[in-house]
Amino acid sequence: MKKPGVFGTLDPFIEDGPILGRRVANVGFLRFLLAADPFDAYHFFISDKPQRESLAANLAQIAPDIAKAGRFRLMDRRELPARLADTSYFCFHQSDCINHPTHIARLRNACAPEVFPITGPVHSLSYPDYPAAFLRHLWAGATARDCIIATSEAGRLAVEGFFDHLRAGYGLNQIAGPSIRRVPLGLDPESLAAPLPQPADKTALRARLDLPANRTLILVLGRVSHASKMDMLPLIRAMNRLFADQPDKSKGLRRESVSLVVAGWAEEHDPFPQTLVDMGARVGLDVRLDLRPGERRKNDLLAACDIFVSIADNPQETFGITLLEAQAAGLPVIASDYDGYRDLIIHGETGLLVPTTGPAPEAGDDFVDRLAPLLFDNQYHLLLAQRTVVHTPELAQALATLLADGPLRQRMGAAGREHVRMHFLWPDVILQHLELWDELRALPAPDIATLRHLPHPLQLPYSRVFASYPAHTLNPEDQFRPGRTGAALLGGREFPILYAGLDNLVNAEAIRKLVFLARKGETALLLSERFRELCAGMDAEAASYHILWALKHDLLEFVPAAP
Fold first, then answer.
1. What are the extents of the domains in the chain?
2. Is 6-186+431-451 CATH 3.40.50?
3. What is the reported pTM?
4. C or N: which end of the chain has fewer Cβ atoms within 10 Å?
5. C-alpha distances in angstroms, 212 versus 208, 295, 554?
6. In this predicted model, what pLDDT tens digit does every residue of 212-236 receive, in sequence order?
7. What is the domain class of 191-423 according to CATH?
């Protein structure tokens, strides 16, 4: 159903770099929003010109019909005030809730005719500077129509935890802040289009991928780092425990019948992946590395393997899109009962969840809290992850259950694939976003006029903070007349020279009117009032900017005070 208005964003959604969950999710959102095409137009405010050009090419490829119809507009962010004033926006949506939503809200409140929803999802939440980012959301100009989208229930509770912590620490209990809603990430329906591989297909894939044909293959897919997504050494220990505890070798649970395939992103010279291989060799386990696979190879690995394992122990993880990819590929999943994973796996039906234990919540702060702001990301994330326990005995038992029962693996894989089909495909997720924006637009909001002049306390008031820098600040009693260049302008011998980037702030024709109004001498107050009367839509801030710009370029000059 078409929405009456325009979709706005400051994000391109498409980023270069390694294939990480956040980047995959952002591209998926944009592709399927444009496939649904629910809006009259799509406005992208991108400050960097090469990035605008790159995005235009990507959009023409993703949604050629929208591009041909001219319903994409890619603009410099300096155009935001004008466009907010003259465009009916249905919503603004960012690719995250951290960087820009609150600043868009301040500009909306100052310029737009109505309070439209501003939304953005969470991704990783564990960075120590994020309390400052969430503090920006707690201000009097936030409305219930501003919304942080949590992709998992654990993520939603974490966002509430941020706000509880900040309200208590800064005495902000009276500030409601934005809404918080849960909408998951999704997968492309194409991931379910192909039939599941038959035994012969798996054999051929394994040959092409140089994987053993007659073993049960356990796949781990994700960032290969003990300080990032998960520490995999407990998995190797669990497998060693499993095989050591098998008194009856006739059941087929032998070391030589299993291989562990570790695939995903790793830094070029990181020694940790090889440590996994060496650790596996020490306990007689075959560990295969497949680092930095492309999209096609990743899909081939999913199709070639038998069991998917992900034992996240790191608060960097919030959702777990690889678990959806594994289920879409028909693999049963063994996952830690941690963060958003428990939203994605139905224990005993689509996979098995392994219990986890973390530290007791501290009333104040602990040594990791105090250290984290002083450390690199990988350093404090390692400290956090190493005190998160994925229970080794239960992990070993989960592995034993699936390794010993091929029919169970097939049933769980089929159930997982159907679970993804019913709940986690992008077209359905986009519908949830559309329903959310409708819901937010229907929520009560203050009259926007009451928010016009309400500054954001974490936006720097430059003119006030730096008032001591210039020798003089503009005041209403200052008197001006045309400068030498201004006189030449009125005589047709000069013209305003505007730098690129000022065209949305300084208007050449308005400057001519301003200099003309000052031809007999005028105070700043009266000059501003008459200037605004002559230029429809000009506000006091814009008038002041024009006066100062004209002074800077000798189009106006001060009238000397009488002796």
1. 6-186+431-451, 191-423, 466-558
2. yes
3. 0.92
4. C
5. 10, 21, 79
6. 999 999 999 988 988 888 999 999 9
7. alpha beta
